[in-house]
Amino acid sequence: MQIIPAIDIKDGHCVRLKQGEMQSATIFSEDPAAMAQHWLELGAERARLTTRIEQIIAGGGTSLYDATAASYDAALARARRDTTRIHALVVMTDGRDESSQLTLAALQKHLAGEGDAMVKVFTIAYGDEADPRVLEQIAEAAKGSHARGSAETIVQVYQDMASFF
Description:
- This protein is α/β, with parallel strands linked by helices.
- It contains six helices and six strands.
């Protein structure tokens, strides 16, 4: 299983957080799709991913639907180039979308209609105030699954998701 790191998005921009604090966000890219492609090309190291997950704070201000669609499209392009591997996208968020151009219905249609399930989407509702309903719908549209996670349970959640492969 290959894990793709999350990209923090606030107000439609890719941001870097200092010690996971949303108020310390520094914009480093205005193109979430390009950043998703960049991470796909580089791959991910588990230690860096684990460290990053431990620092995440579900703080809102996101373009969840746009970022999910862009990441899915990048993963789908990779899946079409290499059909010998399993391709999946993990979306860990509080489930809120405040600034996407896409609607939830449009995202669901996009995920259900593209690639004949070449890329499965696994969603994790992260944080005490996370809303799992939207994330369940996203995962269902892409023939993936959904879980709820916290700082205490996130490693187990990833291990459970790995069992799908």
